Amino acid sequence: MLSDIDSANNLVELFLKRAAEKGDLPFLGAMIGGSWQTISWKEAAEQVCLLAENLRALGLRDGDRVCLVSENRPEWCIADLAIMASGCITVPTYITNTERDHAHILDNSGAKAVIVSTEKLLRPLHGALQASGIADHVIGIDDLHRQQSSGFLFHRWDSMFAGDAAEARQAVEQRIAGIGRGDTACIIYTSGTGGAPRGVMQHHGAILCNVAGAAEILIEDFGIADDERFLSFLPLSHAYEHTGGQFLPISVGAQIYYAEGLEKLASNIEETRPTIMVVVPRLFEVLRTRIMKQVQKQGGLAEKLMNTALEVGERRAAGKPKFGDGLRDALVGRLLKPKIRQRFGGRIKAMVSGGAPLNPEVGIFFESMGLTMLQGYGQTEAGPVISCNRPAAGIAMHSVGPAMRGVDIRIAEDGEILVQGELVMQGYWHNEAETERTIKDGWLHTGDIGHVDDKGRIVITDRKKDMIVNDKGDNVAPQKVEGMLTLQPEIGQAMVAGDKKPYIVGLIVPDAEWTLEWCREQGKQFDCKKVQELPEFRNAVRAAVDRVNKDLSVVEKVRQFAFADEPFTIENEEMTPSMKIRRHKIKERYAERLDGLYRS
After folding, report:
1. Which end of the chain is more exposed for a tag (fewer CB within 10 A), N or C?
2. If DSSP codes are grouped into helix, strand and coil, which group holds residue 492?
3. What pTM does this model have?
4. Is 90 in contact with 185 (CB distance < 8 Å)?
5. Which CATH class is domain 468-596?
6. Which distant-in-sequence residues (6+ apart) come within 8 Å of 547 by Cβ?
7. Rounded CA separation 19/256 (Å)
8. Is the distance from CB of 255 to CB of 291 less than 8 angstroms?
9. What is the CB neighbour count within 10 angstroms for residue 162?
10. Closest CA to 354 of 244, 462, 463, 494
11. Each residue's pLDDT tens digit, 102-130
12. Angle in degrees, CA 342, 347, 351, rounded to 5
């Protein structure tokens, strides 16, 4: 299996090979009409080839860019592979993009066509299409209302599958024979935590290198079954899900089921019974909180078992087990862990966390509950996976594991992590200056600070550009402090600041569920904004901050804090689609409030 990935010239070739092996077995699954329905590998391959040839029939040529604007669904995968099979380059875009975001990507990429899934997603896109005047064609997956337009033509999804499947397959095979590992597969725009998104050119070899490294971990540490199943939840327009949630399962011949959304994720997990899940840390934090609350409500034996499991897990993680921990773990393993595992479908082999740092306490929680947690590390510019924890190397929650196969790591004098290998991007689309600043002598400068421990595992300290340097020159890693704050039941979200200042301050969004419970207990009306004005409410949140401060060094302690006006969300542009906070946006909005904390 690994040799197939290593020898593949491009992603479409690998997909067609797996489709030929799998035939009529299920490949893509989605909830349609109240039940889970699947498309076979054979059907998917036919659709990919037919769509590719119909894209060529529209006049698209080698190297043309095609934007893909859709929620996660089987058609996303079909469209992505078909764009590449047509010789074009996929430009995935977030479904949360505003008209301005779409305009930037259309203008920057010069996309000749756009595939969009729904009427709702067309609305912010339509104005950008009119303004840019670059795209010639818009293909609607669902039925779209044909708005007045100038300069581009609308096409129905079902009209893009005309022709003979065998002839289309032959044409695709002839075309992709000329596509090599060094050719651009997609341009993925970074989510922009620090400014306008930049288009990262990922070549076929970068993604193939990534999936080979990830597949090796699955094969050697967990084994690959015939009915391996991934549940796709993160946006496919994000490099992490694009590689880990789409091309990794393709590379190992696994099924992909598409979750219906966050509100139905828990039930989707139980229904689809995945074996692998690729998720961001924020979701694990939410799941941990929900499980703990549910068990605590049960009380009695269930709560005692959970506390025992956590105590044993923490000692094991610290390398300080106590006599009798084996028996305690066996008891928990018989009475509690099966129930927790059942909430995840009962077949889960591993949950892989990436996209942002995972708080060790969250990782220890899931490990203690009998769920294998692997923390990975990477960035869009590296395909995106650079390293990942694996059982064979010894899982350590403080690290992101050893570098994957084909990846070389070097630590610069200032502590920055440098990466070299086939996974490194070709550069930023139409941005040579930024490319030269990021890739020097073949080494990708990640902007992350860290070191390699005595077992060869990478330990991330913080983002180089996010590092807070106080007025005395002390360095503070904000993500560490923020991660500790958001583990408190009172705190939903947090951002800390203090660059060139005498101490650290915080901006806090109280947890909505905890706030509701507090209001009930205090006999207060539930109003998130008004309750923040109450001294007793502030004191309750202050107590949570003080608990965190006990475990922080003097320079890391949060001395003062203010409440945010509302949660950080994708809609208010204070959070990226991969659930990382946009510091520059938040600081800009709350600059006066944060500065005021140094005068109080």
Report:
1. C
2. strand
3. 0.83
4. yes
5. alpha beta
6. 488
7. 13
8. no
9. 11
10. 244
11. 999 999 999 999 999 999 999 999 989 98
12. 95
